[in-house]
Design goal:
Number of helices: 2
Number of strands: 0
Radius of gyration: 54 Å
Strand content: under 5%
Order of helices and strands: HH
Helix content: over 70%
Shape: rod-shaped
Structural class: mainly alpha
Length: 127
């Protein structure tokens, strides 16, 4: 019979060694995945913080714009007051038109009267 090789490993020891190696590899893979997930979570948290800051700035800009619109609206003249002023101006324009018509009629009267006076003077001198 042959002597067992002292360097030979039994089947059981070989399978246990393979299982231990597989366990070590799985643990390493799980640790790597764990680390990758943690890195992804940190990056995600940073992205969320940046997005929140950007949204806050956008909301501030919108609020500032609304404030400017409110200030601008406060300086506008109310519709009722504008209509009242327009009516007053229209009345003044009508008065000016009426007085210019009256002035034109008066001018015609003066012209006709002046021509009449000239005609009388001419008639008196020619006689």
């Amino acid at each position: 019979m042959t002597q067992p090789d002292p360097d030979a490993v039994s089947l059981r020891e070989h399978i246990l060694a393979l299982l231990a190696e597989m366990d070590r590899r799985f643990d390493a893979a799980i640790a790597a995945q764990d680390k990758a997930v943690q890195i992804a979570m940190i990056a995600s948290e940073k992205a969320v913080v940046k997005a929140e800051i950007a949204a806050e700035k956008r909301f501030e800009a919108g609020n500032e714009f609304r404030g400017q619109l409110a200030d601008q609206a406060a300086t506008f003249m109310p519709r009722a007051e504008a209509e009242q002023r327009m009516a007053a101006l229209a009345e003044k324009v009508d008065d000016v038109k009426g007085s210019s018509r009256a002035g034109a009629l008066a001018l015609w009267g003066y012209l006709v009267g002046g021509i009449g006076v000239v005609a009388v003077v001419v008639t008196l001198f020619t006689k």
